[in-house]
Write a structure and sequence with these properties.
The structure holds two protein chains of two kinds. By secondary structure, chain A is α+β, with helices and mostly antiparallel strands. Chain A has four domains: 156 residues, PAS domain (Beta-Lactamase), CATH 3.30.450; 104 residues, 2-Layer Sandwich (Beta-Lactamase), CATH 3.30.450.20; 66 residues; 145 residues, Histidine kinase-like ATPase, C-terminal domain (Heat Shock Protein 90, 2-Layer Sandwich), CATH 3.30.565.10. Chain A contains 17 helices and 17 strands. Chain A is rod-shaped, with a radius of gyration of 53 Å. In chain A, 21% of the residues are buried. By secondary structure, chain B is an alpha/beta fold. Chain B has one domain: Rossmann fold. Helices cover 42% and strands 20% of the residues of chain B. Chain B contains five helices and five strands; from the N terminus they run βαβαβαβαβα. A five-stranded parallel sheet of chain B has the order 2-1-3-4-5, with helices on both faces. Chain B is globular. Classes of the chains: A alpha+beta, B alpha/beta.
């Protein structure tokens, strides 16, 4: 049958016959038949499926197939011959490759397609199909030869690769979107903060500036980004102290914190700026970049100053009539009539002591305000600590006639500090000891040198306090609930004491037990020059 | 004790009154003045032996007057006590050339001691 088909082709085509006759296909046999048989065997040995269809018959039936075609498709030769090739596509008819084939058949052209075909058992395989026409002497197509290769594995690898690629692309897209989102989230934070922010490269060139920075200094991004920090504006950031901080502090992994700069800036005038700088240590593309946060504290400082001014003026104005009252009282005290009653004398004495208290309260209020704004000034001098203690206690003794004040120990120290402030602390602790132990007879004051500190303890034998009160006793305006009823006051004395001792580099603390009295102690450094 | 002239200038009438009362018993002549702008002409007219000056006064402050007094060769050595209720009064007074400083509210005895020491 095959021989018939091939013979037919050969008879219809003069040229191949000529080739045969010219000996081109004289492979080993002498006769055409012998050589043809050899060729048939060669075709069967091919791993590519090969078919021949007869274009002159209706519906282009397969007239020849080799062994490999049987293997690839799973069909036997009997099930193949006479069918049109399309039976391999099963129900998978919508493939565009079919149109390519159809056109090639119609036009008598050759073509190459990769088409989904199905084996006999229904399994899909990718068929890489080369189809070429065979024409007779008149040029009309008599046959088509189809050479097929099962490229399923390659196709699968390609598909896997494509799938992986598209998955990767999708992932990259997702990640990029996430990154963009978090980036825009971060930048919207940076743009929103009410603080100027600059990002500098390690050589102090500006990489970015946020909106607040640009609006604060009334500059544009073009004037700022890409320029050197020290060359911005009228070289306004070319400040030697700042330079030193950036060059010396940052490389030690320490941030520059709350550095105040006063400068006459172009466009906005003289401003007080608070600078914070931080160098990125994280490995990666941002390493060694510098974040510079700039806060305009001009107004805040101005408000603090005004508050101080207000309190100064208020206290001055309050003290003025107080001075007059005190003066008149002292005049009265010097002119007490000889026949004045005990009640008169006592009343006058009370008025005098309450005027003094009022005066102290005004002074304390001013102190608190100054301490809070950090404006309290220490006038440090060297003084004899023991003599200072003696003097302070002597002053209190004159007032506290019911209590005996005992002094234990000596320090023999010359201390550098603000003597008037330390006296204020001693006076406060002693007057508290008297106030809160009205029925006790003794107050113990102990002074000693402990390591490189001077320690002072004031012990009373009075009411004592619970642990809750102990924690809060140095807070501003703290008044123990019980004590509030019995002893009037504003509750700022110990707060001021605490601040004064802190300003001297020491600590103030209390040990106390209800009913057993309290011991207030403080230390200050024993600086010896 | 010889009778001396003490000029007191403070914009607060109460304080001037109290100081007058306190210093009355020294037997010295007291010249009270509420308006700091008049101080210069009063000095020229009355030639006081001692001046007590407040710091915070309207129009012309105590330290301004004090500098003026020190700049005039005729009064450059005139004893001047500065009084103030201000926290930094002592520093301002010293910088302006005060002979003594008393903080408000003042102590009766202290005022007498300081005045006495400057007049003798």
């Amino acid at each position: 049958m095959l021989n018939n088909a091939i013979n037919k082709i050969i008879t219809n085509h003069i040229t191949p016959l000529k080739n045969f006759q010219n000996g081109k296909f004289n492979i080993s046999g002498e006769s055409v038949i012998e050589n043809l048989e050899l060729l048939t065997i060669a075709l069967d040995a091919s791993i590519s499926g090969i078919i021949i269809t007869d274009n002159l018959q209706q519906d282009n039936p397969i007239v020849y197939c080799n062994k490999a075609f049987e293997l690839i498709t799973g069909y036997s030769r009997a099930q193949i011959i006479g069918h049109n090739c399309r039976f391999l596509q099963g129900d998978d008819r919508a493939q565009i490759e079919r149109d390519v084939l159809k056109r090639a058949v119609r036009d008598g052209k050759e073509c190459k397609v990769e088409i989904r075909n199905y084996r006999k058992n229904g399994e899909l395989f990718w068929n890489e199909l080369y189809m070429s026409p065979i024409k007779d002497a008149t040029g009309s197509v008599t046959h088509f030869i189809g050479v097929q290769n099962d490229v399923t594995l390659r196709k699968k690898a390609e598909q896997d690769l494509r799938q992986q690629k598209s998955m990767m692309e999708k992932k990259v897209e997702e990640r990029t979107a996430e990154l963009r989102e978090s980036e825009s989230f971060l930048s919207s934070i940076i743009e929103t903060v009410r603080e100027g922010l600059l990002v500098l490269d390690p050589k102090f060139y500006v990489l970015s500036a946020n909106h607040h920075f640009l609006s604060t200094f009334k500059v544009s991004a073009e004037e700022t980004v890409g320029r050197h920090l020290y060359e911005l504006g009228n070289h306004q950031w070319d400040i030697p102290v700042l330079k030193e901080l950036l060059i010396k502090i940052l490389p030690t992994n320490n941030p520059v914190v709350d550095f105040e700069v006063e400068h006459d800036f172009p466009h906005i005038g003289k401003k007080l700026m608070l600078l914070n700088a931080y160098r990125i240590e994280l490995e990666g593309q941002f390493k060694d970049q510098i974040l510079l946060a700039i806060e305009d504290i001009t107004e805040r400082k101005e408000i603090e100053r005004r508050k101080d001014d207000f309190l100064s003026i208020a206290s001055h104005e309050l003290k003025t009539p107080l001075t007059t009252i005190k003066g008149y009282i002292q005049i009265l005290e010097r002119n007490i009539p000889d026949n004045a009653s005990e009640k008169f004398n006592k009343t006058l004495g009370k008025v005098a002591s309450y005027v003094d208290r009022l005066n102290n309260l005004i002074a304390e209020l001013l102190d608190v305000s100054r301490i809070q704004t950090g404006n309290i000034e220490l006038h440090k001098t060297s003084f004899d600590f023991d003599a200072m203690i003696d003097e302070a206690i002597e002053g209190i003794r004159a007032l506290a006639t019911h209590h005996r004040i005992l002094i234990n120990g000596r320090t023999g120290a010359q201390v550098i500090g603000d003597e008037s402030h330390i006296i204020q602390v001693i006076n406060n602790l002693l007057s508290n000891a008297i106030k809160y132990a009205p029925d006790a007879q003794e107050i113990e004051v102990s002074i000693s040198k402990v390591s490189d500190y001077i320690k002072v303890s004031v012990r009373d034998f009075g009411l004592g306090m619970n642990s809750e009160d102990k924690k809060r006793v140095f807070e501003r305006f703290f008044r123990s609930g019980e004590i509030q009823k019995r002893f009037p006051g504003m509750g700022i004395g110990l707060y001021i004491c605490d601040q004064i001792i802190k300003n001297h580099g020491g600590t103030l603390w209390v040990e106390s037990e209800i009913g057993k009295g309290s011991t207030f102690s403080f230390t200050i450094p024993n600086n010896q020059e | 004790m010889e009778n001396k002239k003490i000029l007191i200038c403070d914009d607060d009438e109460g304080i001037v009154d109290v100081l007058e009362l306190i210093l009355e018993e020294t037997g010295h002549t007291i010249i009270p003045e509420l308006n700091s702008l008049n101080v210069k002409s009063i000095i020229q007219k009355t030639k006081p032996d001692l001046i007590i000056l407040d710091l915070w006064m309207p129009v012309m402050s105590g330290d301004q007057i004090l500098r003026m007094i020190r700049d005039d060769p005729k009064t450059t050595n005139l004893p001047v006590i500065v009084m103030s209720a201000s926290r930094d009064g002592a520093e301002i007074a010293a910088a302006a050339g005060a002979t003594a400083y008393i903080s408000k509210p003042f102590d009766f005895d202290n005022v007498l001691v300081v005045v006495d020491s400057l007049l003798n």
